[in-house]
Design brief:
The protein is an all-alpha fold. The protein is built from eight helices and no strands. The C terminus is likely disordered.
């Protein structure tokens, strides 16, 4: 609340003073983050300088290393989309794509981030219990599969409802606004992307819970390569709509890759590195379940 409230207050001040610019908005963004982090440190009484970074690195190097690399790929993908679109299309088309993504994609991505924080801890506990021998381990493994399957079906229905509602509403509204009429064709491909990400969410949470950080990195690499390639090819074939469909194709390929890697991880759930797991997962994992 402090973070967002500070940002809004800064934007109102900038707007009221007639100083609206990209730099001023970035400054408001940074001030909000700084205020939010400062209040958190004061309220939690955490003193970062009292910790030992070497101990943290030693205990978390496997998961934190691969998850950091995965996050970097995700950030690179977002930046690369902007550069490639700017190179392939006009500034107006880039603005239209970004505007459509912000309106249709960003809210769902925020929801996914929140739900991921709820799913991963339970998936991590189930994955740790599945490593036990006998009936308790089998029950935990079945529980993880059941959670993933049930949520995937539920989010598939939610994604279908999202597309069925958002697309006609967006098209109806956008065509009536001359400034946004040219991005109306983007409603369908961009609405499909968050629906795909919703279906992918339970599988991603399960892979994180199983500590298969390398598999998650591999999925992001496949998704990024495919989406950027689809973006370039689509932009050359059909300008802005083609670029949007290229990104949607990358999201679909990423979903297929995520499901396949999930089933691979499930097959070797609880197996030690010497029990048939390939070199992709031979790095040591924490002895106790760690929530990514």
């Amino acid at each position: 609340m402090v973070w967002v409230g500070t940002q809004l207050l800064g934007v109102l001040v900038v707007y009221g003073a007639g100083l609206v610019s990209a730099g001023a908005l970035f400054a408001c963004w940074g001030l909000g983050a700084t205020a939010g982090a400062s209040v958190f440190l004061v309220r939690s009484r955490i003193r970062p300088w009292r910790g030992d970074p070497r101990q943290w690195l030693a205990e978390t190097r496997f998961l934190s290393g691969w998850f950091t690399a995965t996050a970097l790929i995700g950030q690179l993908q977002g930046q690369a989309v902007g550069f490639l679109v700017a190179n392939q299309l006009s500034a107006r088309e880039l603005s239209g794509l970004r505007g459509a993504q912000t309106a249709l994609l960003q809210p769902v991505q925020n929801f996914i981030t929140a739900v991921m924080g709820l799913l991963v801890p339970r998936a991590s506990r189930l994955a740790a219990d599945a490593a036990r021998e006998g009936t308790p381990g089998e029950q935990a493994a079945a529980g993880l599969r059941r959670q993933t399957r049930t949520l995937a079906l539920a989010f598939a229905v939610l994604g279908a409802v999202l597309v069925a509602v958002v697309v006609p509403v967006a098209r109806t509204v956008l065509v009536r606004l001359p400034k946004f009429a040219d991005i109306a064709p983007l409603a369908l491909p961009i609405a499909i992307q968050p629906a795909i990400y919703l279906v992918q969410l339970p599988f991603a949470a399960a892979i994180r819970g199983m500590h298969r950080a390398r598999l998650l990195f591999l999925q992001y690499a496949i998704f990024t390569t495919t989406s950027l390639s689809g973006l370039v090819a689509g932009a050359r074939l059909d300008r802005l709509p083609g670029a949007a469909w290229g990104l949607t194709t990358g999201s679909a390929v990423g979903l297929v890759a995520m499901v396949g890697l999930y089933w691979y991880a499930q097959r070797h759930l609880g197996d030690p590195p010497s029990a048939g797991v390939t070199a992709l997962d031979e790095a040591p994992e924490p002895a106790a379940p760690t929530v990514p």
